[in-house]
Write a structure and sequence with these properties.
This protein is an alpha/beta fold. 48% of the residues lie in helices and 18% in strands.
């Protein structure tokens, strides 16, 4: 394979244009990313859709610094949050192609990996302890093997953004009947639309890039996000109410291009897995710290939102009756394994 030679002057210019102004997208557009990967220290560029202070961004930025330190610079892991690529599917395409080493589908995990859809069925995952024991155990190991074989991606760690809650403009969503007639933005995985329609609302599939303008113009009446993302994405600028329904658990997964992974030494592979698990713990603590009524009020009400507690059991009952049966049939043995898993 021919290696491109770049003058120091051109390289300096490229860095200024790509990293300062355009982020990693500028590098990818030039086709030069593989050249950097062949530098003396092994570059591992990671893309993440959000920047600090979002919980995942905080955790993975920390991980990048730890990898550089603990490898004595042999692994140059660089974290780009919110300035690298700005869409979940672009990030995952970059990882699959090897143009970037590490990334995650953020909240679109079930869109990219249909195998993860079962975890998003409303109210099936009961709590954080249950979720992490599943992902850090046999179920997570099985998914890792499947992702390597099917997608050529190595799972570094599972993480989450927490449980989803409604953000709306016209009224709070306290009971299932409050969703009637409400146009709620959802991500484009089928399970999200089924959740909103099954609970009584009108699901509007929409990419995140369109959401703010749609909320301002009244095309949608609201959407749903975990608290940590309502804060990070400043949803309070277009929404009045946050209704804590805990209706969908929001798992995601950090993955590495399998060819890049196989090119690491065993010691470097262990370092990546060790720091990934530590980053998972940090992310979990940050996410859970705001995913309760008191903390959400403290964070969001000074910014103009009204935070309310919803009738979670009423929503759960509707989900069990109207949404669960079809998914139980679809996922079969995996459904039984998740439903029967005890934290």
């Amino acid at each position: 394979m021919t290696i491109m030679k770049i003058s120091s002057r051109a390289l300096s210019s490229l860095h200024r244009r790509s990293l300062v102004k355009g982020g990693m997208a500028g590098i990818l557009a030039t086709g030069l990313a593989p050249t950097f990967a062949r530098a003396q220290s092994k570059k591992l560029m990671m893309a993440h859709i959000n920047a600090i202070p979002e919980s995942g961004a905080v955790a993975f930025d920390w991980q990048a610094a730890e990898v550089r330190k603990r490898s004595n610079g042999e692994l140059d892991m660089q974290f780009f949050g919110g300035t690298l690529l700005n869409k979940e599917l672009e990030i995952m395409n970059g990882v699959k192609s090897g143009n970037i080493a590490i990334g995650n589908p953020a909240g679109a995990a079930a869109t990219v990996f249909p195998e993860m859809g079962v975890f998003l069925v409303p109210y099936l995952v009961q709590n954080y302890d249950q979720a992490y024991k599943m992902f850090n155990g046999k179920i997570g190991d099985t998914l890792d093997k499947q992702f390597q074989e099917k997608y050529k991606l190595k799972v570094l760690t599972f993480f989450d953004y927490g449980f989803r809650h409604f953000w709306t403009n016209k009224k709070a969503i306290v009971e299932p009947k409050d969703l009637r007639g409400q146009k709620i933005r959802v991500q484009q995985a089928k399970v999200f639309g089924d959740t909103i329609n099954g609970l009584g609302g009108n699901a509007v599939p929409m990419a995140w890039g369109e959401v703010i303008s749609a909320a301002k113009s009244g095309v949608i009446d609201g959407g749903d996000l975990p608290i940590v993302n309502q804060i990070a994405l400043k949803i309070y600028e277009v929404s009045k109410y946050c209704s804590m329904t805990f209706h969908n658990y929001g798992p995601s997964v950090n993955v590495m291009n399998l060819e890049v992974w196989n090119g690491l030494t065993p010691a470097h592979q262990k370092l990546m897995l060790d720091t990934s698990r530590e980053a998972q713990t940090k992310c979990r603590k940050l996410t859970e710290s705001v995913d309760n009524f008191a903390a959400a009020k403290k964070e969001l009400e000074p910014k103009g939102m009204v935070v309310v507690q919803a009738n979670v059991e009423a929503f759960r009952k509707v989900a069990q009756e109207k949404i669960w049966p079809a998914y139980k049939t679809q996922y079969g043995a995996l459904w039984d394994e998740v439903a029967g898993f005890k934290a």
